[in-house]
Design brief:
The protein is mainly β. The protein contains 1 helix and 45 strands.
Length: 780
């Protein structure tokens, strides 16, 4: 919350994203770029005056570009990627992502209204009534509730207006069953003192345009969400903010769509093959996903004149259920049923910050978090499917089906403590030094339990009937991990002039270790746990406003080294009894000894005249393994695990690209033009948004995905007083077909025997097809 008594001077440097009308100063003063404030330092600051790389995207910009979800933030931040399955979301910054194989602290953290959101999937549904997004790049080791080795996304929702009733209603309709209605309304309860804001969204869409090939089922995702926010400011000495969010998400949209090679032997798959761009799902039943979220955030601020005491508290619960065909084929062979119960997500922070001192501004604080969750995954796999008369035993020569049903449970409890200090020294009018440190103490207690039952069924002509079931023994693997570490920052900034700054920053971040979530009971126990990860970074940058503040130029370059980098992979071959036969597949998170990330970012925004503005932003990120000689892979050297009596194949990935959902290069360009219509009291406008993504390498399969580019266009009429806006838009206007990443291998089925290749590759990350729509907004 940006409380009105925050006066702390600036100590970081930020790169801003100013788009469309946000680039115009809305006044009769000389033509200059508009200033934007952020709270990257947990105080209200001008975006362009501070030393660390941050992008700010206002809620107005987000809405002007008809964006509805977190993943659409990618269109505004070069080098960023937020996507993935909503049960297991993935955020990549500067070419480094998190693909988690179990409960683990993400590399890039999310904060909502100042509070840490430990389960990121809670933010991967509809975003609405947003004030702004702030994206901090590089290690965050001091100010925020959790240390991060890669970066932080901070989401700020709108505050109630304490002076008048105001609000908006907006509806968007478009191709692929899009219907999105949003509203927000503020009501002062006590003028200038107490107010409430109600906001909500109802969204239906099928923007991916996936289809079930073998079922007459229409795909659709539906989100219903509402938030109520109270703001209390009885005087200059105190302010309080309380918000509660409730969300429902229901979907039968495909988890994967199929690319099938010609000659597939599987009944129901096209023998001639099919491209993934046909967007067909050949599953034998539709996916079913249901999510319920409750989230409460409270902030209290006490101003003692010499310092401000802030209390920030977060509490959330959520249930997340998903049932889908695990092999994506027409064969009734496999399924996976996942239930995630987040019974308690709690954290609180107490901090004390000095107010507007001349030489030294300081901040000290403590942090505590306690989380409790249970994940259950029931997975069916089939060993023999429909083979007549080949089962040795007392059964007649009828078709037999032998299946395995694995029940996996992961109970995860975590408790975190932190203490931090952040200090800014104004050495003189030009030099500013910032020093910060944080003590982290994180404890994890996990129990990964799995039991596999064997079901035997016979088809006697009336369908399969289970005739016997053999329960499996429970295999429980407890794990206790502790991470105690110091993280921090040192920044030095120099003002070249009133409008130009250079800076250098050294940062250290990290995250705790953990345990691989073993869904099939095949991960070798002795290597199932992984160590904590740390990263150290140095960044230099320039910030400037030139040509009478009509041009903004931001430049940065960085060099970052990760130690004990946590790397996840899956579907790797395993020899379970050292007989030379790789008879199982396993998943694992390993520690790569060193990973190097280096790159540069440049952004220029220019105000051509009062009607035309443009922006160009370029990001280059080069990430590679420096030292990783025992990486699990499908075509490596046989490596024995003596403690488990098993073996896997290992590769030396030293020198190889890390692999991420972002390529080395990403480019964003934006142009905005408006034309006043005089006596009509309106203006016509046209905006264009271009995105380019270079070749990406999957961190799991190591498969390249070609580069691609998309273009979005927006045009419409709006009143000059901001009351109404009618917009026609098209996303991915040239209908570019692109695979964003390939993180799955060819599926197999038990037809006729377990492990039969299908010729089908699962794709879950395709660029959405062209979508045309209309958006109307009314403000009051």
């Amino acid at each position: 919350m940006e409380h009105r008594f925050s006066k702390t001077r600036l100590s970081l440097t930020v790169s801003a994203l100013l788009l469309g009308s946000q680039a115009l100063a809305q006044s009769s003063s000389p033509l200059v770029l508009e200033e934007i404030t952020v709270t990257a330092q947990k105080t209200t600051e001008l975006l362009q005056d501070v030393p660390v790389s941050v992008n700010a995207v206002t809620g107005k910009v987000f809405e002007q570009n008809v964006a509805f979800e977190m993943k659409e933030l990618n269109k505004f931040i070069p080098g960023m990627y937020a996507n993935g399955n909503k049960n297991n979301p993935n955020i990549a910054l500067r070419g480094v992502s998190t693909i988690a194989g179990g409960p683990t602290t993400p590399r890039a953290n999310i904060f909502v209204d100042g509070s840490y959101q430990s389960q990121q999937q809670l933010s991967f549904y509809s975003q609405f009534d947003i004030a702004r997004f702030e994206v901090l790049r590089g290690p965050q080791g001091t100010l925020y509730g959790k240390a991060s080795p890669t970066g932080t996304i901070s989401i700020h929702t709108r505050n109630p207006d304490l002076t008048e009733v105001e609000g908006f209603i907006k509806h968007s309709a478009g191709q692929h069953s899009l219907s999105n209605t949003q509203f927000g309304v503020s009501v002062p309860l006590i003028e200038n003192e107490l107010g409430v804001r109600f906001a909500g969204v109802y969204d239906e869409n099928q923007s991916s345009d996936y289809e079930y090939a073998n079922m007459n089922v229409d795909q659709l995702s539906r989100t219903k969400s509402g938030r109520v926010t109270f703001l209390w400011e009885p005087g200059d000495m105190f302010s309080g903010r309380l918000s509660h969010l409730y969300s429902e998400y229901d979907s039968n949209e495909s988890r994967f769509i199929a690319g099938v090679e010609p000659g597939s032997p599987i009944p129901g798959l096209p023998s001639e093959g099919i491209s993934p761009f046909e967007r067909q799902d050949f599953s034998n039943f539709p996916r079913d996903a249901n999510v319920r979220i409750n989230q409460t955030i409270a902030e209290l601020n006490f101003d003692f004149d010499w310092a401000v005491l802030t209390s920030q508290t977060y509490h959330a619960t959520s249930t997340n259920d998903e049932f889908y065909d695990a092999d994506s084929t027409p064969i009734d062979d496999a399924y996976r049923n996942t239930q995630i119960n987040l019974s308690k997500l709690f954290n609180t922070e107490l901090r004390l910050a000095s107010s507007d001192n001349d030489f030294w501004n300081w901040m000290v604080g403590v942090y505590y978090a306690n989380n409790d969750s249970r994940t259950t995954v029931d997975t069916k796999g089939t060993a023999v499917n429909g083979l007549p008369g080949n089962f040795v035993g007392p059964f007649p020569p009828f078709p037999v089906n032998i299946s395995f049903v694995s029940a996996t449970t992961l109970d995860a409890i975590s408790e975190d403590w932190g203490a931090f200090t952040h200090n800014t020294f104004y050495l003189n009018d030009d030099w500013t030094l910032t020093l910060g440190a944080r003590w982290n103490n994180e404890r994890r207690s996990n129990v990964n339990a799995i039991a596999t039952d064997i079901d035997i069924a016979l088809d006697t002509g009336n369908g399969y009937e289970t005739i016997t079931s053999v329960p499996g023994a429970l295999n429980a693997r407890p794990a206790e991990t502790t991470w105690i570490a110091w993280t921090g920052t040192a920044k030095l900034a120099y003002n070249l002039s009133a409008d130009e700054m250079v800076y250098v920053t050294i940062d250290r971040g990290g995250r705790a270790g953990g345990q691989t979530l073993d869904l099939a009971g095949t991960t070798p126990p002795s290597i199932s746990e992984y160590d904590p990860e740390s990263s150290n970074s140095i960044e230099i940058g320039y910030k400037g406003e030139l040509l009478d503040r009509r041009l903004r130029l931001n430049l940065s370059a960085y060099y970052q080294m990760y130690n004990d980098f946590q790397f996840y992979t899956q579907d790797q071959p395993l020899d379970t009894n050292l007989d030379g036969n790789y008879d199982e597949m396993f998943r694992i998170t390993q520690n790569a000894k060193e990973v190097l990330a280096q790159g540069a970012e440049a952004e220029v925004t220019y105000l051509f005249n009062e009607n035309l503005s443009g922006m160009l932003s370029v990001s280059y990120n080069d990430t590679k393994f420096e030292d990783f000689d025992d990486a699990a892979c499908g075509d490596g050297i046989r490596t024995v695990i003596p403690a488990d009596g098993q073996a896997y194949l290992a590769c030396d990935l030293g020198g190889d690209r890390l692999g991420s959902d972002t390529g080395n290069w990403s480019v964003i360009s934006r142009a905005s033009y408006s034309l006043p219509l005089g006596r009509w009291g309106a203006e016509w406008y046209a905006d264009a948004l271009y995105n380019f993504y270079s070749t990406r390498v999957s961190p799991i399969t190591r498969i390249d995905s070609p580069s691609y580019a998309t273009a979005d266009f927006f045009t419409g009429l709006r009143s000059t007083d901001g009351v109404w806006d009618l917009k026609l838009w098209v996303k991915n206007a040239f209908d570019k077909e692109a695979i964003q990443n390939i993180n799955s291998y060819e599926t197999t089925v038990a037809f006729p025997l377990r492990g039969t290749p299908t010729g089908l590759l699962e794709y879950d990350l395709l660029a959405n097809p062209r979508q045309v729509g209309l958006t109307g907004t009314y403000n009051f």
